[in-house]
Amino acid sequence: xxxxxxxxxxxxxxxxxxxxxxxxxxxxxxxxxxxxxxxxxxxxxxxxxxxxxxxxxxxxxxxxxxxxxxxxxxxxxxxxxxxxxxxxxxxxxxxxxxxxxxxxxxxxxxxxxxxxxxxxxxxxxxxxxxxxxxxxxxxxxxxxxxxxxxxxxxxxxxxxxxxxxxxxxxxxxxxxxxxxxxxxxxxxxxxxxxxxxxxxxxxxxxxxxxxxxxxxx
Length: 217
Fold this sequence. Notes:
By secondary structure, the chain is mostly helical. Helices cover 83% and strands 0% of the residues. Helix 2 runs parallel beside helix 8, helix 4 packs parallel to helix 6 and helix 5 (110-131) packs parallel to helix 7.
């Protein structure tokens, strides 16, 4: 059974990684805007498909798939309209917060709570300092809440929690392009790898936990 499941579902992960790598190397290629947008969206879109096939049954799985799907849509729309794409990511973070709040860890140590509070506070603060834009700080408040609730959730922190932190760092690099201090060429090279690695870690960490529980039952 385990081998059969691997055969059936690993291709979605491999296809997702392939799309992410292809987009990274072809994004400046005259392939055509529509094709590049579709390729970009496919990276996280295939993660959403993987999550739906592996753990999409039930309310919790559906909420998580929705969060990934909104991120995939945001990836594509960002290429056309930054504000509209940002709105989709904001919605994705809010859905993810609702999901992680339903998956809270029963016991958390003071240090874990302290780090979650640091993520909640530092994410919008650093975002504002980098961009000097209040609307970016407002968006980043939802981003920080997503990371904080992910860190306090029952999912493995070394994957889901760390993935959320990589998501934050990726967005910080985006915001650095808006402010007075340029960090180039770091954003050009690292925004996409950090973002995708974060999403991949989150998706696999959540799915394996939810799937494992269903298998036990």
